[in-house]
Every structure is written in C-alpha cells, then in structure tokens.
Amino acid sequence: MHIPDGFLDIKTLTTTNAVSVGLLYLAIKKVNKFITPERIPIMGVSAAFVFTLQLIAFPVISGTSVHLLGSVLISVLLGPFSGLLIISSALVLQAILFQHGGIISIGANIFNIGIIGCILGYFIYRVYPNRLLAAISAWITTVIGAFFCILELYLSGKVDLKTGLIAMLSTHAITGIIEAIATYLILLSINKIRPDIENIEKI
Amino acid sequence: MKHSFFDKYSYINSPIHRIHPVIKIIVFFVFSVSVILISESSFLIHIIGFFILLTLIYFSKVPFVFIIKRVFIIFPFIFMIALCNFFSRFTNYNVIIKSILNSFLIIIALILLVETTRFSELLYGLSKLGFPKIIIILLSFIYRYFFVFIDEVEKMLCSAKIRSYGKIPLKTLANMVGIFFIRSYESSERIYFAMRMRGFNGEIKL
Questions:
Q1: ipTM value
Q2: Testing the interface with B: which of A99, A187, A201 to mutate, by most B Cβ within 10 A?
Q3: Considering only A133-137, A150-154, A183-187, B164-168, which range has the smallest mean pLDDT?
Q4: Which of A6, A159, A195, B30 has a CA 20 to 30 Å removed from the CA of B148?
Q5: Touching check for B121 and chain A: CB below 8 Å?
Q6: pLDDT at position B168, please?
Q7: Which residue of B77, B177, B191 to mutate against A (max A Cβ within 10 Å)?
C-alpha cells in the first residue's frame, strides 16, 4: 500500500503532492483555528500511538499478518482534520526512519491513506455515527485507498491496470475486513473503559 | 531498552555531519527529483548517482555494510510492487529495472541523510524550510514517545502471548490496542500538566 520512491513519474508526483499539500493546508488552518493548549499533547501522543499501532502485526488466516492503518480509528476519535495531520506526520516519520513508503512520493501516500481514510472515512461515519458504520467505513476506505494506489502506479506506466487491480483489491478486501473488525473492537473497548473519551472535541 | 538502531550513526563526527541541515535537505531533494527526471531517458544517471553516493558515504564514515543491511530490510516491499508488473501481459523489463534502481538510489540517499543528521537538527532544518509548525510538533512528539510506547506494547504483547499459548486472538489484540490508546491518552494528560508546570501556554518554541 505504501508506494516507495522511484515508482511514480513526475506528472503523478506533482499532481498527488499538490492535492495533498492543498488539503493539508486547509486542515492546518482548521486545526489552528480551534486548537487549545490541552489538545497539543493529546494530538502529539495520539500521533505516537498511531505510529506504534502501525508496527503491531494483526493475524490474518493461514499465518500471514497485516498492520492496521488506523486512519478511520483516529479520525473517529479526534476528528477528521486532526486525524489527517496525525496520519500524515506518522507517514512522514515512517518514510524518514524506516524508508517504508517514499519521501518524494509522500503526497501519494498521504492521499491514499490519510485523505481517503480520514476525510472520506469520517464523512461516511458522520452519516449515522455509530461503531458499526465506523467499521464499514474502515473497510470502504481501505479498498478505495488500494484502488487509488494502483491507479497512481498505472498512470506512471509501472503496472498493468487489470493485473494490479485484481492483485491489490483482492488482498485489500481481506485486510480491510481485519481493519474493520479491529476498528469496531478497539472503539468498543475504549467505550467500555473510558466512555468520556468520546466527548473529545472533534476537529 | 535499545531501539535507536535507525539513527545510531547520527552522533559521530565527520565533514558530512557538520554541514548545515537545511543544505543537506535541499541537496537530498534536488538529487532525488533529478534521479526521477533524468532516469526516463538513460541508465547513465544511475551510475553517476551511485558513485556520488559512494563518495559521500566514504566521507561520512557511516559503515557501508550498515546501509546495505538497511536497504535489504526494505527490499521486499519494493520487490512486491515490481512483481505486479512481472505478471502483466506486456512486461517491460527496462521500466521495472529502472524503477527498482531509482528506489535504491533515493533510499540510500535518504538513509545517508538520516544517518548524518541528528533528528532535532532535521526538524530544525524542516522548520527553516517552511514546514508547518503543527507538523513539526507532531513529529517531535512521535520521536519522543515512540520509544516509550514500543516498550509498553512489547510488554503487553509478551504477556498476552504467555496467556494465550503463543497465538493471540484478534479480539484480545484489539482490546489490547484499546487499552493502549487509553494509556496513551492518560499519559497525554500527565504530559500536559508537566508542560504546564514548565510554563507552556499553547506556544511551542522551536
């Protein structure tokens, strides 16, 4: 899902980076307008939480494992724009420290995971806010993210559209199910132990 | 516990380490973008780029074996995307090899940048280049608390494994992550009080 450096050509890189920077600018403006001093540590520690969450291996059938993206989870907990900032900074740090996902193609990765996961995922969740819809939106955004990932690689002339779509969508339909179940269960357990966390202002 | 494997050479002293971080970041971006731009036409850039990187690695005193090891950790992910092309109808080996070489060059350059710059200097350079403040704050928070959190998660995973005969069911894992979020939320409350005590009023000075 994370696109490494060197696979996208210059026109796809410019487009995705421009779209991501534009939306990030909007998100930063929105967050800066409503931010309170208490919220800075909450956002920072949540970013560290997401970064660590993406290192935990979740089991899938037959011994393989995946890691969660956590974008719908964090945007349901803290709001779409804070979620976008948190996921973007986690992706930037992953690219810098582990080289997992590229730093030049960071715009594409922020678009596939952050913007689709947080903004679109949160607006699907907003239709009727409950945990089940959050799980469904986690599945939908994982699959749409995978679709855009293949689309970007196809536009750069690196993969065949049909083969890529079959490979990517079939695997991400399964990992999406894990993501959906995990999102549901994580939200359930947070609600059971600290119900007041749901009252954090969602920006 | 010891986790600082990814920037353990950033504290040694060499001519490359002493260059201003802003210059290093700009050089890295110019190098990567030019690799992507020029590689469309010929393989020459890969050979030249590789020699430039070898010279820089030699002067920076970072062990060459260490960089190769780091590259091979990330290699499976690159290979997986290249594999998608192998199975398509019109396989173009030229394109695949070029993109893999591009990836290698940019990854080696990035590893060199991270290994020769301390993380605080890197953040300073990024903020000088006009990166938004809130992103810098989030990055510094992640770097500060990630090591604490990964220890905590390792302990939780270890005890969960002991209790469930080595194989953790999804429900337990999800509950664990939920508790992990609550723990980090509570620690953020304590961090806020500690920051408040030191005179924090919503403004972070970099």
A1: 0.90
A2: A99
A3: B164-168
A4: A195
A5: no
A6: 81
A7: B177
Q: Which tokens hold the place of B183?
A: 């723990």
In the chain, the amino acid numbered A18 is A
What is the count of residue pairs from A and B with beta carbons less than 8 Å apart? Answer: 227
Both structure tokens of A164: 């890529």
User: Which CATH code fits A10-199?
Assistant: 1.10.1760.20
DSSP string, chain A: -PPPTTSS-HHHHHHHHHHHHHHHHHHHHHHHHH--TTHHHHHHHHHHHHHHHTTSEEE-GGG-EEE---HHHHHHHH-HHHHHHHHHHHHHHHHHHH--S-STTHHHHIIIIIIIIIIIHHHHHHTS-SHHHHHHHHHHHHHHHHHHHHHHHHHTTSS-HHHHHHHHHHHHHHHHHHHHHHHHHHHHHHHHH-GGGGGS---
| pLDDT at residue number A202 | 84
